[in-house]
């Protein structure tokens, strides 16, 4: 009986370590906005877009602008 309790305790401690990383699993399969900007042929700028470029989205989690010609 004590062995069963020790096994359950070890299993509980092992599974409790998976909890904090579970939130990171939701980001799997999602591409960053910087990657999407580069794939469209744009550049990420913290300053305003250069002349004759337009803002097409964001980069760096919304901190910069994706500028496309």
UniProtKB/TrEMBL annotation:
Signal sequence, start to end: 1-23
SUPFAM superfamilies, per database record: Defensin-like
InterPro entries per record: Defensin_beta-like
Keyword Disulfide bond: yes
Keyword Translocase: no
GO molecular function: CCR6 chemokine receptor binding
Family classification: Belongs to the beta-defensin family.
Cell location: Secreted
Subunit architecture: Monomer. Homodimer.
GO CC annotation terms, alphabetical: extracellular space
Keyword field: Antibiotic, Antimicrobial, Defensin, Disulfide bond, Secreted, Signal
GO BP annotations, alphabetical order: defense response to Gram-negative bacterium; defense response to Gram-positive bacterium; innate immune response in mucosa
Pfam families from the UniProt entry: Defensin_beta
Protein task: Has bactericidal activity. May act as a ligand for C-C chemokine receptor CCR6. Positively regulates the sperm motility and bactericidal activity in a CCR6-dependent manner. Binds to CCR6 and triggers Ca2+ mobilization in the sperm which is important for its motility.
Protein name, per record: Beta-defensin 1
All residue ranges annotated as the Beta-defensin-like domain in the record: 33-67
